[in-house]
Amino acid sequence: SNAGPRAEQLPWHFGHAAKWLRAHPEVEVARVGLDHRHLYEEVRQAGSLAPVVGIPAVVWEGVQARGLDNRLKDLNWLSLHKCLPVRSIMYRHGLARSPTCPRTSCGGEETVRHVFWDCAFAGVVWARARVLLGRNMVKTGRDWGVEGVVRRVEGDLRGRMKREERKWGQHAARERWKGGLGLGLS
């Protein structure tokens, strides 16, 4: 039926299982199994040590800053989980002919780290980004990682926004920035 989102429509066999579980109150899993809100509440009450498994909360909060465009959030998540479609991963799944970098000057295995940092072409991209950001990015363990770069870009955008607010006024500056960067300004 077209009554609701496809993801919320239950499979045909769920109705029979739900009827049986309701008829047998001795089965305590029925409440959890039939009510997704209860399941969410159970997970929320249990709490989580880290927002994402395997990544410290401090790193995740630094990378996933509020106001980032959803596409940047997806890029952050994929890069931190090493799930970006780079050649080494695609080669393992039979989707690429070779796991090596396509740049003629490189020839190394194309991993997530290679794409962002180790490739000579990545160095050229970061050099151009330095000019656009107007800062010298010091190569330290703290500032040169993905989270450090995202933090710097976010800070730069906030600074530019504040300068334009002083120059044009708050409403006019926000109207100028709307849509172009997807900063979630309202």
Description:
Among the domains are: 11-46, no CATH class; 84-134, no CATH class. It is mostly helical and 186 residues long. Residues 181-186 have low confidence and may be disordered. 56% of the residues lie in helices and 0% in strands. It is built from 10 helices and no strands. The protein has helices at residues 12-23, 29-34, 36-46, 57-63, 70-80, 87-92, 112-118, 120-133, 146-168, 170-177.
Features:
flat; 56% helix; mainly alpha; 10 helices; 186 residues
Short description:
56% of the residues lie in helices and 0% in strands. It is mainly α. The longest helix has 23 residues, at 146-168.
| Average pLDDT figure | 73
Number of strands: 0
Q: What separation lies between the terminal Cα atoms?
A: 36 Å
What's the total helix number?
A: 10
The helix-strand sequence is HHHHHHHHHH
Largest sheet: none
Which class best fits the helix and strand makeup? mainly alpha
Give the helices and strands, then pairings.
Layout: H1 12-23, H2 29-34, H3 36-46, H4 57-63, H5 70-80, H6 87-92, H7 112-118, H8 120-133, H9 146-168, H10 170-177
